[in-house]
Amino acid sequence: MPDSTAQLSFEFFPPRSAEQQAVFEQARDRLAALSPAYMSVTFGAGGSTRDRTRETVFGIADATGIEAAPHISCMAESDDDIVKLLDDYQAHDIKRLVVLRGDRPSGSGAGVFPYAVDLVRFVRERYGDTFDIEVACYPEHHPESRTPNDDLQHFRAKVAAGADGAITQYFFNAESYFRFVEEVRSLDVAIPIVPGIMPITNYTGLARFSQMCGAEIPLWIAKRLKAWDEAGDRESIASFGEEVVTELCRRLLDGGAPGLHFYTLNRARATLAVCRNLGLDRPTEAAVGS
Ligand code: FAD
Questions:
Q1: Residue 240 burial class via C-beta count within 10 angstroms: exposed 0-12, middle 13-18, buried 19 and up
Q2: Ligand 1 pocket test, candidate residues 100, 141, 152, 170, most atoms within 8 A of CB
Q3: Distance 263 CA to ligand 1 centre (A)
Q4: Given CA atoms 39, 42, 47, 48 in this order, what sign does their dihedral have?
Q5: 274 contacts 246 by C-beta, under 8 angstroms
Q6: Coil, strand, or helix at residue 25?
Q7: Which ligand 1 atom lies nearest to the CA of residue 99?
Q8: Are 73 and 100 in contact (CB under 8 A)?
Q9: Residue burial 244-262, b: 16+ Cβ < 10 Å; e: rest
Q10: What pLDDT score does 109 carry?
Q11: CA angle 114, 117, 120 (to 5 degrees)
Q12: Rounded to 10 degrees, what is the CA torsion of 140, 219, 221, 198?
């Protein structure tokens, strides 16, 4: 059984409608019962969700008492815009940020800063130690990086600029994570590297998204999911997905991963099932909801 003190964190996106808000709140409250270290909220491509990210973050802290961490990216309108947002987070006692370059919405130009490293540096220079800074990293390498070694060096630069921790892009091959950790340790990068975990609940969306972000779905997984998807057999996808992701998490924790960061997609069921299988469902007095 993996170490039950492993740190959990859950990522959400800001809901876009009243209906999505209700679904999000239910997931948030069910996952809050697992006492995560924090819950994070994404910053939509091109900064499109800035206000909704902010409201969702404050809502998490108010409703659950659990630490909430906004994602922030270079894709803002101006550095004034970023400063206003960060001032507001500081005033609301936000302690942790997930700092990213962000993805460009199609057809739009560059962000306020060219790379995440520049935003990490900006936050550190202007706000000192106000915020713990998490950054992204890529065990299977970022799709735009020229070579794997370039990507490692760019990640190392983010750490040198002031990152306190890193969350990986999701992957289904545990070896890629162990290899990545070994390589960055050899570059004297000592910060915790928490694997990002994508629960498997469907095939088409996962395949499309994986293609975009450069995450590999191994064939032995993809072919099964595709066949069940074509047969409309959602139950088999869910139970196989639960088994595969549980096994992946078990290997990661047994191999020394400091925690797990779940991309919940605002749904609790698949994440809860994996955490229960791992013995990481640990209700506390702070927990709310069902
Ligand atoms: P960077 O670290 O800037 O790297 C981007 C690319 O540029 C890499 O290929 C890197 O090797 C290269 N690079 C870096 N520095 C240099 C340099 N000096 N010279 C040349 N090349 C360089 N996106 C969102 O829009 N909103 C979110 O909320 C969001 N949350 C995320 C959370 C996690 C945990 C992860 C893993 C990703 C998230 N993303 C989000 C996606 C992320 O924005 C994209 O993966 C994006 O393409 C890269 O972001 P980054 O911060 O890793 O960029």
A1: middle
A2: 100
A3: 16
A4: negative
A5: yes
A6: helix
A7: 51
A8: yes
A9: bbbebbbebbeeebbbbbb
A10: 62
A11: 115
A12: 20
Indicate which residue's Cα is closest to atom 41 of ligand 1.
102
Task: Check residue 103 and give its pLDDT.
Answer: 82
| CB 156, CB 202: distance < 8 Å | no
d(CA 53, ligand 1 centre) in Å: 18
- CATH topology classification for 7-200+238-277: TIM Barrel (3.20.20)
Three-state secondary structure call for residue 224: helix
CB of 102 sitting under 6 A from ligand 1? yes
Q: How confident is the model at residue 287 (pLDDT cuts 50, 70, 90)?
A: very low
Give, as one character, the DSSP assignment of residue 191: S
CA 102 – ligand 1 centroid, Å: 6
Query: For the whole model, what pTM was predicted?
Result: 0.96
Q: Which atom of ligand 1 is nearest to the CA of 46?
A: 25
- Catalytically active residues, by annotation: 11
**Roughly what angle, to the nearest 10 degrees, separates helices 18-32 and 269-277?**
10
- How far is the C-alpha of 148 from the C-alpha of 137, rounded, in Å? 12
What's the pLDDT score for residue 203?
A: 98
Place of tokens 């560059």: 110
* pLDDT at site 87: 97
Name residues whose C-beta falls within 8 Å of residue 31's C-beta, 6 or more positions apart in sequence.
10, 39, 264, 268, 271, 272
SS3 state at 133: strand
Rg of the chain's alpha carbons, rounded to an integer? 18
Cβ contact 26:267 at 8 Å: no
**Which comes out higher in pLDDT, residue 50 or 275?**
275
The residue with tokens 């890193």 is: 166
For residue 278, pLDDT beyond 60? yes
Q: Are strands 96-100 and 68-73 parallel, antiparallel or unpaired?
A: parallel
DSSP H or E stretch at residue 193:
strand 193-194
